[in-house]
Protein 1
Amino acid sequence: MSEYTSTVVWQRDNQIFTDNQYSRAHIWQFDGGLSVPASSSPHVVPIPYSVAENVDPEEAFVAALSSCHMLFFLAIAAKRGFVVDEYRDEAVGLMDTNKEGKLAMTKVTLRPLVRFLEIRSPVGSSWKKSIIFHINSVLLPILLTRK
């Protein structure tokens, strides 16, 4: 079993708050010392109450899935003797109404572009096996396409 922690810090800073016109900007702090400026998504809460430059939870969710897939893929490639020179994924998450009529992340599409040292690449089975990890840990469709 593993435990993961983060600290989320938000302060009112003399805003009225009860009028619902307060900043959603906050900080995510992680155990390694990194602090990340965060906010609600401007797609959910309009600017100026959201900060477009900050990471929002929806973006972080998509990035976490993409990062997890990349790490799993790299481990499979290394184990099978393939040298990966570069991995880039321009992943996309879709917020939509779910079956219960609630706004939710309903689909994530991973679009990795992988550059190998050699011409041969393990596209078939490695790609399929690496996506299985996500199917077991996330309850939404995760699609894998090539860019």
Protein 2
Amino acid sequence: MPVFESVFESTAEQPARPLLRPVASPAATAGQPGEREGQAAERRGLLPVVPALREVLPDAGLRRGTAVSVAGGDTGLLLALAAGVKETEGGWAAAVGLPDLGLAAAEGYGLDLRRLLVADDPGPHWAEVVSVLAGAVELIMLRPDGPVPPKLAARLAAVLRRSGCVLLVAGPWPGVALRLGVRSGRWFGLGDGHGQLVSRQVEVVAEGRGSAGRGRTARLWLPDEHGAVRPLQEQPQQEQPQPMAEPAARAIRAIPVVPAVEPVAPLVAAVV
């Protein structure tokens, strides 16, 4: 897979631009028949989300061409919201300004690392990177480099409307119509001075303008002991982890490798 580099014209000398790199090379993996549950959402102009998050969103999906704010920048919630992109026809996503993003956690939530582009540290050029990527991927996860001026947010909103890309922002965003956040959380797995954190129970709240104005809540495992997101009332295949208990070793799943069609990298064009 080629490495993409964004190039912008300028009359002034600019510092070196960060490389936009693919997380993983396209690998031949088995197809997932029956994973087109998001087609109905796409027909309604929505980006699909994982089933556990549908009840907390006003439209049971993310409205294409809009920005969504994740209050507090909760990385788990950010990844869980982005995981549904795999159900789209293209299935490509990008992460901008998130150098500490855990790729193993991203894969656990359901993101396809073969279709994830990363610009670790775009610095002050993050808005240019987002503008370029919006026409090439279905979803962008972003942590801006500082406060976002309303005029800049308005210009990027126009870019999103034209492209249909969804922007998930870790933190506040001017004029956003939908905000999500973790109201409360409780980790499980630590014993009496030993062990490791394996799962978290949270209450997720969504609020905003229009149909999101009255607010919605959902109690979730974010993540559960297997690194995925699911409703709290749903019973796992194994016994639920108990707080202050000895953690069970996390299972490592082997992924069979069989010939398949490699995903085609999206064409990224520079926008001046």
Protein 3
Amino acid sequence: MKLKGIKSAVRHYNWAEHATVMWDSENDEVWTDVFGGCNEWNEYHDKKIRAVLGKHEIWPGGRQTTMKEIRMACEEEAKEMLEGEEKKEEWAEIKEDEPECRF
């Protein structure tokens, strides 16, 4: 998986105390949303945009990340998305096979 913007995402994530790495599965772009506090967040209404890594540090200088860790998190999220689609297809097939209920 080749991710666009990964170096910048790592730099911003490691600099911030409160941050979330976001991934757009449609174009494999990643970025970091940086927040001033733990009660802030962004909402994305596109199901192709997923949060893959987050930190909300109480103490400055906390958890750091790497490009490898972000890439692995995106790959895991992609796997979960695929499994979710397969389950939807399975349920659709089961629903088609069920006789129609009439009351």
